[in-house]
Amino acid sequence: MTGDSDGIFVGRLSVVNTGRRRRWSAAEKARIVEESLTGHRQASATARCHDIPTSLLFRWRRAYREGRLGGSDEVCGFVPAVVMPDAPRPEEVPSVAPGRMAPGCMEIIAHGGRRVVVDAGVDAAALARVLDVLERR
């Protein structure tokens, strides 16, 4: 122990973590979430490894599943696609039963369950703009 001029002894001095606030990029969050979802590793072990609260990891996991894990980084995934045989052109088909699409049409289900139905002659650039707007909502 050391003494000072007032006769007060200091036995131990500890630096306390002040709870610094860290910023995580969307890519880092996605990497940590994917690490927590692989193998038999528990979420609490992954959280400890990266020194984050378990509740934060679970919040990131929920956002990851919902496709909104932040920023402009995109989480890519696969959607089901079915290849159908060529069908007659819509003008060659006399009528289409209610609830069914005309032959040659394609239905795209965007994020959030929004549906877009287009025919084979759709302008790809226009369709890309429409889907981009729907994905941002």
TrEMBL record:
Native organism? Aquibaculum arenosum
The family classification in the record reads: Belongs to the transposase 8 family.
What lineage does the source organism belong to?
Answer: Bacteria, Pseudomonadati, Pseudomonadota, Alphaproteobacteria, Rhodospirillales
**A family per Pfam:** HTH_Tnp_1
This chain's protein is named Transposase
Q: Which InterPro entries match?
A: Transposase_8, Trp_repressor/repl_initiator, WH-like_DNA-bd_sf
